Inverse folding.
């Protein structure tokens, strides 16, 4: 992509952002200092309110209409994506709207405020909740995933206002909890009515446009056995003998391997940007006592699937049905399992989505980045992200953020400071060009 020449007004905005580098870093540091560690079910609130209030205060100063709201509690099974009881007490979502001047295209800027646990803080080279600049990088939990990108979005809007640039279209800045744990926060924003002509999410894409993502199905397969003394010879099971449920995992695991290999080659599992669908056994549990034949074994699997495999019900029902059918067929070859069928529980799902790679906002964001010397390409995220929920809810959205993704979720997470500055500037340029602007 050839580098474009910026207009004089765009140059002023970019210069303003570059001169404000220290203020931008300070904003990221303030957000990182808010402990918004992703929750397990039942965890008390952390500092979600504090962080959302920091953002809300600055957005109100820009003249935005700001709303903080706590969604209604979600019961286990109420949503296919959320397998446990969930409430949002003390964990508000934020929606702030900056009204445009004359009916231009509307833009949604989104990001999640939760960050994964730092783990053992002694393994970090500095306090994970006290962001620190070293060697041109800003270190701290959430600096790249994704408080850095969120700060870029906000600072871009502030610098546009300071330069007297008024956008023609509305901008909705929204931040949510629970991306790392369930996707519940993004779903809550969509259910609350957040919409726009298109949207950006601040995941650390390294200036690429992640226009697609895979979905996932988390499920268990339960194998029934029959208990007995493990140190005693067992008669045939038809004569009342014990049956080792763990042993009976073998045909199930074999079927999973064969299905994974089949999907790797099948045309309906191919995508120009995404890896084929797959199934990964991730947990196994079974047994009651060290000298007892296990009477139950539970295998937990993570299956990924493509946007083209979403069924008429809006979920991955075709994939779910194929998994159950294939594993049942393999189990049917075992006389015990034929008479004691597998039990399936598909208990969590995140649905994939994609938008066209030539969407106007995609081209606008990539062109804006290229104008700053940052070359990005149309790409995809192999896991799942919140833009899928917005896209399915009527707002075509993709991830577009700074670099640092290779350090996300790890020790010494970090983001290049120059990436923060350039991503902030690219966001400002994209907003001006997509929404329309005037002095």
């Amino acid at each position: 992509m050839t580098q474009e020449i910026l207009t004089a007004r765009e140059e002023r905005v970019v210069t303003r952002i570059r001169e404000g580098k220290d203020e931008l870093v300070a904003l990221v540091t303030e957000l990182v200092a808010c402990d918004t560690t992703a929750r397990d079910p039942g965890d008390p609130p952390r500092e979600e309110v504090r962080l959302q209030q920091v953002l809300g205060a600055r957005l109100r100063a820009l003249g935005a209409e700001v709303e903080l709201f706590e969604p209604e509690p979600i019961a286990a099974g109420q949503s296919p994506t959320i397998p446990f009881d969930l409430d949002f007490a003390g964990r508000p979502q934020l929606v702030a709207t900056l009204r445009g001047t004359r009916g231009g295209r509307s833009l949604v800027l989104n990001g999640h405020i939760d960050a994964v646990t730092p783990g053992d803080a002694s393994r970090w080279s500095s306090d994970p909740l006290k962001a620190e600049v070293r060697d041109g990088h800003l270190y701290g939990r959430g600096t790249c995933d994704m408080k850095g990108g969120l700060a870029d979005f906000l600072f871009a809007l502030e610098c546009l206002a300071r330069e007297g640039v008024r956008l023609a279209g509305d901008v909705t800045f929204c931040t949510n909890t629970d991306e790392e744990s369930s996707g519940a926060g993004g779903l809550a924003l969509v259910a609350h009515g957040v919409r726009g002509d298109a949207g950006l999410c601040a995941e650390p894409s390294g200036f690429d446009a992640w226009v697609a993502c895979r979905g996932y199905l988390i499920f268990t397969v339960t194998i029934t056995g029959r208990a007995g003394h493990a140190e005693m010879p067992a008669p045939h099971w038809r004569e009342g003998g014990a049956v080792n449920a763990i042993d009976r995992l073998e045909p199930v695991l074999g079927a999973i391997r064969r299905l994974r290999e089949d999907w790797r080659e099948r045309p309906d599992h191919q995508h120009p940007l995404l890896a084929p669908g797959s199934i990964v056994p991730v947990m196994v549990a079974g047994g009651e006592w060290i000298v007892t034949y296990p009477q139950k074994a539970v295998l937990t699997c993570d299956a990924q699937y493509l946007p083209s495999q979403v069924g008429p019900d809006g979920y991955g029902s075709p994939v779910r049905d194929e998994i159950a059918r294939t594993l049942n067929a393999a189990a049917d070859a075992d006389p015990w399992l034929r008479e004691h069928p597998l039990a399936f529980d598909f208990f969590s799902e995140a649905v994939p989505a994609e938008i066209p790679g030539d969407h106007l906002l995609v081209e606008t964001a990539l062109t804006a980045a290229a104008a700053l010397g940052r070359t990005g390409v149309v790409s995809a995220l192999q896991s799942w992200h919140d833009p899928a929920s917005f896209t399915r809810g009527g707002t075509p959205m993709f991830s577009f953020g700074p670099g640092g993704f290779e350090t996300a979720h790890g020790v010494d997470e970090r983001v290049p400071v120059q990436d923060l500055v350039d991503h902030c500037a690219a966001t400002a340029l994209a907003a001006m060009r997509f929404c329309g602007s005037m002095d």
